[in-house]
Design brief:
The structure is a single chain. The protein is of the alpha+beta class. It has three domains: about 70 residues, 2-Layer Sandwich (Uridine Diphospho-n-acetylenolpyruvylglucosamine Reductase, domain 2), CATH 3.30.43.10; about 130 residues, Uridine Diphospho-n-acetylenolpyruvylglucosamine Reductase, domain 3 (2-Layer Sandwich), CATH 3.30.465; about 100 residues, UDP-N-acetylenolpyruvoylglucosamine reductase, C-terminal domain (Uridine Diphospho-n-acetylenolpyruvylglucosamine Reductase, domain 1), CATH 3.90.78. The protein is about 25% helix and about 30% strand. It contains eight helices and 19 strands. The strands form six sheets. A five-stranded antiparallel β-sheet has the order 6-7-12-10-11. Strands 1-2-5-3 form a four-stranded mixed β-sheet. Strands 13-18-17 form a three-stranded antiparallel β-sheet. Strand 10 and strand 11 form a beta hairpin. Helix 4 packs across helix 5. It is globular, with a radius of gyration of 20 Å. The mean pLDDT is about 95. Bound molecules: uridine-diphosphate-2(N-acetylglucosaminyl) butyric acid (EPU). The site of uridine-diphosphate-2(N-acetylglucosaminyl) butyric acid (EPU) has 19 residues, from strand 13, helix 7 and strand 18.
Length: about 325
């Protein structure tokens, strides 16, 4: 059943732990319900949220917040080597990953322990340890805000890129995601080349789905704050991509700077490293700071407001610009 609330607290819906309200909050659990709700069109400000793990509220939201509680994980096609798994947008991301690992389906295990829900993970193209969700997405089923029409975006229509998709660009604010279908492998295939993942998996007894999941969970646990204990939105900034020549000049001046080749002309630099070099891990700050084990994560140390976090983030951006001449862009979606 569709549920509607007015002046609704968003505190349980953002992992930063910021107090904010939505003028209206709509929670739906089926395609029919949301299509009917939007059938006459919807004007006014709207925001679709998942688990709220990538949002920063800097003011109360004056419009309508939509949340999908569409559940279900279903095998819709199968060959000798692959399965197609259709998943409701409201399914918790890590519950999906755990389910695929239990069933012996390969593909999502490196994306273990990422907070959030299935719908938002497609918008954001979540990625970790050498895998991006978009690589495994076959299609995304969506409902249009304007009229409640059913639409299907095939993989190529989604324009997946690093932390990016069509849903953050041309299609921004135009759709509500209902289902995401993934293509997973029934035959073993592991991606263990990122950082110390292989080493960790070997320590746990060697390559298996369960060991990869456990290794990723342990690495994340050591480096990233658990949203249930410390307010944060995971990586606050994206890793900046710069030209090969500029990266080479930086490397000459700072030989230990971690860099990763993106393509022929571009190189990705670790924002966490840049922020750490600017001294932010050691800068005392009463209510906002960077996480002690990963400077890319901005944490709410207690009673920070959204504005406190944003001001802090701007100071971080300015310092990195001044020291390295590199502009950091926020990964977090600032609302208000
Ligand atoms: N580093 C530092 N200091 C720091 C943080 C990082 O020196 O404070 C260095 C590390 O030593 C390493 C390099 O920077 O050499 C990269 O660090 P890490 O492996 O932790 O990854 P990241 O690039 O900082 C990205 C994602 C994470 C994802 C990890 C692992 C982005 C914006 N972030 O972080 O995603 O878990 O890779 O794949 O791309 C998230 O999006 O919320 C998130 C946590």
């Amino acid at each position: 059943m569709i549920k509607q609330y007015n002046e609704y607290s968003l505190l349980p819906h953002n992992t930063f732990g910021i107090e904010a309200t939505a003028a209206c909050f709509v929670d739906f659990s089926s395609v029919d319900e949301i299509r009917e709700f939007l059938a006459d069109g919807f004007d006014g400000e709207s925001l679709v949220i998942g688990g709220g793990s990538n949002l920063l509220f800097v003011a109360n939201f004056k419009g309508t917040v939509f949340h999908s509680s569409i559940m279900g994980i279903e095998v819709v096609d199968e060959t000798d080597t692959h399965i197609l798994l259709r998943v409701g947008s409201g399914v918790n991301w890590d519950e999906l990953v755990a389910y695929t690992v239990e069933h012996g389906w390969y593909g999502l295990e490196n994306l273990s322990a990422i907070p959030g829900e299935v719908g938002a993970s497609a918008v954001q193209n979540v990625g970790a340890y050498g895998v991006e969700a978009g690589e495994l997405i076959v299609n995304v089923e969506a409902i249009t805000m304007n009229g409640g029409e059913y639409r299907i975006f095939n993989h190529d229509d989604c324009h997946f890129a690093y932390r990016d998709s069509v849903f953050k660009n041309e299609e921004k604010g135009k759709n509500i995601i209902a289902y995401v279908t993934y293509r997973l492998s029934k035959v073993p295939q592991f991606k263990l080349s990122y950082g110390n993942l292989k080493e960790k998996v070997d320590e746990l007894g060697g390559e298996s789905l369960a060991n990869v999941r456990r290794a990723v969970c342990e690495i994340r646990e050591a480096k990233l704050p658990s949203p249930s204990r410390v307010g944060s939105a995971g990586s606050f900034f994206m890793n900046p991509v710069v030209s090969k020549d500029f990266a080479a000049a930086l490397k000459k001046e700072y030989p230990t700077m971690p860099q990763y080749v993106v393509d022929e002309g571009n190189v990705k630099i670790s924002a966490g490293w840049l922020i750490e070099q600017c001294g932010w891990k050691k800068t005392p700050h009463p209510n906002v700071g960077v996480y002690e084990h990963q400077a890319l994560v901005v944490v709410n140390r207690g009673n920070a407001t959204g504005t406190d976090v944003l001001e802090f983030a701007r100071a971080v951006v300015d310092s990195v610009k001044e020291m390295f001449g590199v502009t950091l862009h926020m990964e977090v979606n600032v609302i208000g």
